[in-house]
């Protein structure tokens, strides 16, 4: 389970910024917390901010860290790392990007991180804390890799680590127990875009091919009142003529769905009613062709939602609210915040512009984050619980968060000038 994530010198983020999932001492919604022994952890966190303020870059940093960790060993010796430093400052444009994560595994707290540029991992570290005191397992810098006596799985692997590879991933490749657990934690991070969200469609088909899982998913679908009474996979022999006249994107989708010599599609079931509104039969609609963009997005979210909630993973979604009704967005959040619905203690981190959630989302103040750029173009990340008003007071829990945010009380909103004084407005007046 995630305790905190930090990133520095990455895209619009210049100085180290930290998103914390360990709960503060505030009193609201304590029933929503994950009791993890010495830690009380948040089940979800939301990030608000103006367009181009950097909220997506915070989530992208998580995507990138996960990608580097999980693919490190598979890369070639000349492969570049997908990092880009803060380019608006001469001190950072040539410096490495910084990533660090704290998480709990089997009651042990680990702190793992690295600094890297596109060519090389400059530094890397792993610490563990079984009680309170923290001790290092390995430390890597330009002088080499120092492996602790307590991290025997790393001994002898120092010289087997390429400059552009992570030592942690090498230890996992050689069946290191601790490294394996940590890699599994990163594999449990499920990143998805709220705009371009089709990446899990193939996974959805595989899950729906298992009747027990399909029944669980059908139950979730029923709760969201989509007017859909069932779901069914459609399989058929490959017909090459299908490809004629189709766009390259559709052709790629076709090949992605190949299952041996068969292809798979998803049909949704609607009820057909007679003259007296009695149900008479089922009607099968193709999901992609016949259902709305919002319904398609919901189904694309269904696989990562299920996987996170079933396995206790971390779901990371940018633009969660895009294409979805606000009540549907609230329902997805409730799946994570409600301990009864989220018994595996999965976590959700997402970005949104839906201010209704500040009123109706049921968030604690430490679950609400904002991003704002300073005068030098660098992103700052801060939570509502740590925000101080002009008189130095903290924000009270009885404040109207949505109203205050829209009025600019917490910052992190766009500044929009008087359009009546714009050239565009003058031109329109002349035309009319």
Report on the architecture of this protein.
There is one protein chain. With 432 residues, the chain is of the alpha+beta class. It folds into two domains: 2-188 and 312-406, Rossmann fold (3-Layer(aba) Sandwich), CATH 3.40.50; 198-291, no CATH class. Helix content is 28%, strand content 27%. The chain is built from twelve helices and 19 strands. The protein has helices at residues 55-71, 167-173, 177-187, 201-208, 211-223, 248-256, 287-290, 293-311, 326-337, 356-360, 401-406, 423-431, and strands at 2-8, 17-20, 34-36, 39-41, 44-49, 97-105, 108-116, 121-129, 135-141, 144-147, 189-193, 230-237, 258-259, 262-273, 279-286, 314-318, 347-351, 368-373, 379-383. The strands form four sheets. It has a seven-stranded antiparallel sheet, covered by helices on one side. It has a six-stranded mixed sheet with strand order 11-16-17-5-18-19, with helices on both faces. Strands 12, 13, 14 and 15 form a four-stranded antiparallel sheet that branches. Helix 2 (167-173) crosses helix 3 (177-187) and helix 4 crosses helix 8. The chain starts with a strand and ends with a helix. Mean pLDDT is 84; it is low at 241-246 and 256-261.
């Amino acid at each position: 389970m995630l305790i905190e994530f930090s990133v520095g010198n990455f895209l619009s983020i210049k100085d180290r910024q930290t998103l914390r999932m360990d709960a503060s001492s505030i009193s609201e919604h304590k029933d929503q917390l994950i009791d993890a022994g010495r830690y009380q952890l948040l089940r979800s966190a939301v990030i608000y901010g103006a367009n181009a303020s950097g909220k997506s870059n915070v989530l992208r940093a998580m995507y990138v860290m996960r990608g580097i960790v999980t693919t490190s060993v598979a890369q070639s010796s000349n492969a570049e790392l997908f990092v880009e430093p803060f380019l608006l400052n001469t001190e950072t444009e040539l410096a490495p990007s910084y990533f660090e994560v704290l998480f709990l595994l089997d009651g042990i707290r680990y702190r793992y991180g690295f600094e890297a540029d596109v060519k090389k991992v400059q530094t890397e570290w792993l610490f563990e804390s079984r009680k309170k005191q923290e001790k290092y397992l390995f430390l890597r810098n330009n002088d080499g890799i120092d492996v602790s006596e307590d991290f025997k799985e790393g001994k002898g692997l120092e010289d087997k680590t390429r400059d552009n590879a992570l030592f942690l991933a090498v230890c996992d490749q050689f069946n290191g127990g601790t490294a394996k657990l940590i890699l599994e934690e990163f594999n449990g991070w499920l990143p998805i875009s709220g705009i371009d969200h089709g990446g899990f469609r193939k996974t959805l088909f595989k899950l729906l091919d298992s009747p027990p899982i399909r029944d669980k998913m059908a139950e979730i679908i029923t709760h969201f009142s989509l007017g859909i009474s069932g779901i069914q996979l459609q399989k058929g022999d490959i017909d090459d003529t299908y490809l004629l006249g189709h766009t390259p994107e559709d052709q790629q989708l076709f090949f992605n769905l190949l299952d041996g010599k068969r292809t798979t599609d998803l049909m949704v079931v609607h009820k057909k009613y007679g003259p007296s509104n009695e149900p008479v039969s089922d009607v099968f609609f193709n999901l992609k062709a016949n259902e709305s963009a919002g319904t398609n997005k919901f189904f694309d979210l269904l696989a990562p939602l299920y996987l996170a909630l079933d396995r206790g993973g971390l779901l990371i979604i940018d633009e969660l609210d895009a294409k979805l009704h606000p009540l549907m967005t609230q329902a997805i959040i409730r799946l994570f915040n409600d301990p009864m619905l989220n018994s595996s203690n999965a976590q959700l981190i997402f970005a949104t512009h839906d201010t209704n959630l500040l009123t109706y989302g049921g968030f604690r103040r430490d679950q609400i984050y904002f991003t704002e750029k300073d005068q030098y173009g660098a992103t700052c990340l801060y939570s509502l619980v740590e925000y101080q008003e002009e008189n130095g007071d903290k924000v009270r829990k009885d404040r109207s968060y949505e109203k205050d945010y829209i009025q600019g009380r917490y910052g992190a909103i766009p500044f929009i000038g008087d359009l009546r004084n714009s050239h565009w407005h003058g031109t329109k007046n002349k035309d009319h």
